[in-house]
Amino acid sequence: MSDARLHAVICGVVQGVNFRYFTIRLAQRLNLTGWVRNLGYERVETVAEGPRDALNAFLEELRIGPSSARVTRVDVEWQKPTHEFTDFRVTYEEW
User: Fold this and answer.
1) Would residue 20 show up in a list of annotated catalytic residues for this protein?
2) Under CATH, which number does the domain 3-90 receive?
3) Active-site residue among 38, 43, 52, 89?
4) Which string of DSSP letters, residue by residue, matches the chain?
5) Model pLDDT for residues 16-61, shown as the tens digit of each residue
């Protein structure tokens, strides 16, 4: 299966509940590259690249989140991969 790029904004109780670190561990387990960051009030944004099946598994887990989170919505956009990332990390930059 070919690589893809997933851009997602996760909404709900997703800040102050280790959501970013949950996302990093999940992405690393699935061998994805990209980043995650807090967007502000009750929103976390992530971009991940890798095999489509791994990205689908990633998205399924993001819809649930860690046990202390309460995800109410996930906005998803599928894109062509750029292969610009070498790992998966927290970022504070504007993309």
Assistant:
1) yes
2) 3.30.70.100
3) 38
4) --EEEEEEEEEEE-SSSSHHHHHHHHHHHTT-EEEEEEEETTEEEEEEEEEHHHHHHHHHHHTT-STT-EEEEEEEEEE------SSEEE--S--
5) 889 999 999 999 999 999 999 999 889 999 999 999 999 999 999 9
